[in-house]
């Protein structure tokens, strides 16, 4: 039995949330700001930048932004910039995560997937170092790890739960 028993219910709830639309080049989240918002990608693509360096490109519907700021009670640690017209479901993060256990489990699942993917990439990095792989190969793997740890979805992640549930035509579970 899945930990989130009815993801379709969560998807329907999202339909009732306000939608924010950002044009290409617009800042969705600014590093060092405190918004208190949880943004869930509906459509589009964004770049995640940390200290001016792009660490990830996120296109997966269902990707979450702003969760670390709320959970750790600190300002946002990265800039999120729209690469194309992008829409997000917007929620007051603290309220949603306090009152909706399915939303909290969804965010926890996103974070757990990110950590698991980063752990797998770290193992690959260690193998590459032990095998004496070229610096360019090792650097690419290190960049993938950076992206996995710095974004709520990345272009190096596989289309796996929970993101794939937001894809058009995805089954309701």
Overview of the molecule:
There is one protein chain. With 173 residues, the protein is of the alpha+beta class. The chain has one domain: Jelly Rolls. It is 39% helix and 22% strand. The protein contains five helices and eight strands; from the N terminus they run H-E-E-E-E-E-E-H-E-E-H-H-H. The strands form two sheets. A four-stranded antiparallel sheet has the order 1-8-3-6. Helix 4 packs antiparallel against helix 5. The radius of gyration is 16 Å and the shape is globular. The chain starts with 6 loop residues before the first helix and ends in a 23-residue tail after the last helix. The C terminus is likely disordered.
Strand content: 15-25%
User: What CATH architecture do you see?
Assistant: Sandwich
Overall 3D shape: globular
CATH topology: Jelly Rolls
Number of strands: 8
Poorly predicted spans: 152-173
Radius of gyration: 16 Å
Tally the helices: what do you get? 5
Helix content: 25-40%
Average predicted local confidence, pLDDT: 81
- Within the largest sheet, what's the order of strands? 1-8-3-6
Distance between the termini: 11 Å
Q: Can you say what the CATH homologous superfamily is?
A: Jelly Rolls
- By secondary-structure content and strand pairing, the structural class works out as alpha+beta
Taken together, the total number of domains comes to: 1
Give the biggest sheet.
4 strands, antiparallel
Report the top-level CATH class: Mainly Beta
- Reading the helices and strands in chain order gives HEEEEEEHEEHHH
